[in-house]
Amino acid sequence: MDRWILGSLDCWAPALQRSSTPTIQQSNNPAIHRAINPPIHKSNTLMRSRDHIGYLFVSPYLLHFAVFIGFPLVFTLILLFHRWDIVSPMVWVGLDNFAKLFRDNLFWQAMLNTGIFLLLHIPLQIAVALFLAIQLNERIKLRGFFRAAFFLPVVVSGVVVAILWDQLYAKDTGVLNALLAQIGVAKIGWLTEPHFAMPAIALMATWKNVGLYIVLFLVGLQSVPAQMYEAAEIEGANAGQKFWKVTLPMLNPTIFMVVILSTIGGFSLFIEPYIMTGGGPMNRTLSAMLYIYKQGFFFYHMGYAATLGFAFAMIVLLVVVLQRRLVERE
Amino acid sequence: MSNKILHGRASTPFSPAHRFSNSPTLFWMFIILSLAGCRSDTKDSRQELLYWSANNPYEQSVAREIVAAWNAQHPDVPVHHQPIPEGQSSEEVILASIAGRTTPDIYSNAWPGDVEFYVRAQALLALDQFAGCDSLMNSRSAAEVVAQARSRDGKLYQVPWKTNPIMMMYNVKLFRQAGLARAPATYSEYLAAAAKLSNGSSSWVGISDIRMLWWQRFFDFYPLYLAASGGKGLVDGDSVLFENASAIAVMNFLQTIYREGYFPKQKMTTTADFFLLGKAASRFTGPWEITHADKFKPEGFEYDFAPMPAPDDHKGPVYTYGDLKNIVIFSTCQRPHAAWEFVKFMVSRSNDLRLLEIASQLPMRKGMLHDSLFVDYFAQNPRMVAFARQAEYVRGIDQSPVMKEIFDAISQEYEAAVVYGAKSPEHAVRDAAARVRLIME
Q1: Which residues pair with B320 in a beta bridge?
Q2: Contact list, B407 vs chain A (CB under 8 Å)
Q3: What does the pLDDT look like over B317-333, one tens digit per residue?
Q4: For residue B284, what are the CA distances in angstroms to A206, B203, B270?
Q5: Residue contact B420–A281, C-beta within 8 A
Q6: Residues 370-409 of B with CB under 8 A from A
Q7: DSSP B382-438
């Protein structure tokens, strides 16, 4: 085995030596000893060169990291303390951007909207995905077709889905209102009435993403041992009791994963309000991401947009850390 | 990254290891040379002027014809025409080109609301440094239009080129059914027609996109405000001008319309054209709608254009938003005098006529209706006469580097007060003014 690879074992050596179990380095077998401690003589230079060749292999990623992650990150940190409109020189403003953020009601409204979206979207996502996953886990006809059909929206472009639903939701020409009219329900301004707009977007986002979570729940359902259901049946449990006492507890890790993935996805809500509502009506669908985008690319307040982005990242971090703690406690 | 880091100190010059470890150097050289090679052949090397026009086919045709005529007459100062590169908006493309210092020499579709922003970035040449600039401007356009084009520093950076006045396009038959022999001219007439249409034929009196998009106010609040105020601007320097009775009257008028259901609370992203379907009796739009309407109108559909409705006690001419697009020369231009000569050529009488004939867009030229060169055109295109008359009373955008934010602030209050009735017109105008003052601080 090449020492280049085995060398990585060196870092474990002290721990291995502390161990009471004889290690391979302590082995008396001469073959093993030679394999892990080859004689070092004239090839030393070559090896050092080989080590440096490693830089060549990682250089594409390093270049990518430097250009697309490292530089923007450092630049964003610089922008936090400046006013800059892209074409004029930067102006140092100290902590003015942060002071403005705390006075900016629209940003906090956008955060509230994002929170409302998460509260609507996550439970709906879990309920619908779990229900459909249970149905698709049964031996039903055309099961493969339905599994593919429910997954299809996941691979369709978000912009296309938003445009499609925009048409479905249209007040006077939309299919949804036409169907409701059949049962005598008056036309609803799905995207133009302040109370309906965010729930309508949450419904659309659920339709778009539910396929992914169905797959996750299917994996979870298929890993529940059949013996547990058999034992429950022997104990006389009915279908409801089996669901609440066996299925749901066994799916806890999957549910937490779905919650975390939905939370992260929900925080990045952008395409739907951008295409369908522009943040209206009455700013009720203005998401944090959309507001940051508008500050940066509509009004060219790059410094302030960077500050909003930084604050938003801190809030997301806080929420994810809290969720993680909760998961670990569970 | 230094070679020492890349291939170590101890390799001998001719060893295989050395040859191999030279690869990173070669790799980086390849990358750097490749990136350097990405720089395109720019206009500097060709000694020709680069002119960007709008990228719609009609204006491209106009630009091609003007450039061909110029190049035939001035072979020593060739101009290369290129439609503005595709982007989400032309403003965004111009901004990117300013940031990248890849601006053209001349651009003919500059929105006046952005000009002050470009001036602040020192991206434009002041045109009044050229001999004959003032006389050209004043002989071609009204003094009021030239005054509006002047920047806050007192200099002229743009030549007012063309205008698309926003007017009321109306369905002649529907208004006739509502008992009107002519288009409603005042708020009372408009609301009375709205009530009759609503009761009689279940039609809306008009339609406007309710989305809270800043530019959407060019088609409702802003032209109505200009009509009501006699062409008064929104801001002047750092002063707010729109906190007045005219703005409140407009908000009140529009609020009544939405409250009574005379306009639908509708986005305009749906495919149906409610005006051509005869469902809405009017809309506030520009002359570009003529081509569309003539192409898609149903059999027997009659439409016409009239000035924007004004308050009942309004006196004097009815102003509107002109949607002006102007010509600018960027400061990256290496041959500014030659560029200025080309701009003068662009706005000549004969080229203004070609702009009308090919693109159906009105040059910002005064007295066209009585100019012998234009008489035949207007005789053959009577619909454009109304726009030519209205062009005498248009206003563009005030000179402020934060115009988009000002319109965004007004838009927010407009939505709250007019569309959803969440606050009174007085309250909405006061809040919008307060927010604009904060923006301009």
Answers
A1: B394
A2: none
A3: 999 999 999 999 999 99
A4: 38, 16, 18
A5: yes
A6: 402, 404-405, 408
A7: THHHHHHHHGGGEE---S-TTHHHHHHHHHHHHIIIIIS--S-HHHHHHHHHHHHHH
User: Which of B27, B95, B271 is facing A56, going by the closest CB pair?
Assistant: B27
pLDDT at residue number A152? 94
pLDDT digits (tens, 9 = 90+) for B15-24: 444 444 444 4
Predicted confidence band of residue A44 (pLDDT cuts 50, 70, 90): low
The two tokens of residue B285 are: 């739009």
Q: Do residue A189 and residue B98 have CB atoms under 8 angstroms apart?
A: no
Q: Tens digits of per-residue pLDDT, B149-200?
A: 999 899 999 999 999 999 999 999 999 988 888 899 999 999 999 999 888 6
A55:B5 CB<8 A: yes
Q: Do B99 and A86 touch (CB under 8 A)?
A: yes
Distance (Å, whole) CA B293 – CA B360: 14
Q: Which chain A residues are within 8 Å of B1, Cβ to Cβ?
A: 55
Q: Residue B80: beta bridge partners?
A: B50
Q: What is the pLDDT of chain B when averaged over all its residues?
A: 87
**Strands B49-53 and B106-110, bridge-based pairing:** parallel
How far apart are alpha carbons B153 and B105 in whole angstroms? 22
- CA B274, distance to chain mean position in Å, is 24
Half-sphere exposure of B60 (CA within 13 A, CB side): 7
Checking ipTM against 0.90, whether it exceeds it is no
Nearest to B415 among A50, A280, A297 (CB): A280
Neighbours of B295 (CB within 10 A): 8
- Report yes or no: A296 and A305 within 8 Å, Cβ to Cβ: yes
Could you say which residues from 414 to 433 on chain B have a Cβ atom under 8 Å away from some Cβ of chain A?
415-416, 419-420, 422
E strand intervals along B33-127 = 49-53, 79-83, 106-110
Q: Which of B79, B65, B45 shows the shortest CA–CA distance to B343?
A: B79
Distances (CA, A) of A33 to A2, A22, A27, B331: 14, 13, 7, 74
Q: What is the maximum span of chain B, computed from C-alpha positions, in angstroms?
A: 100
Smallest Cα distance from A215 to chain B, Å: 34
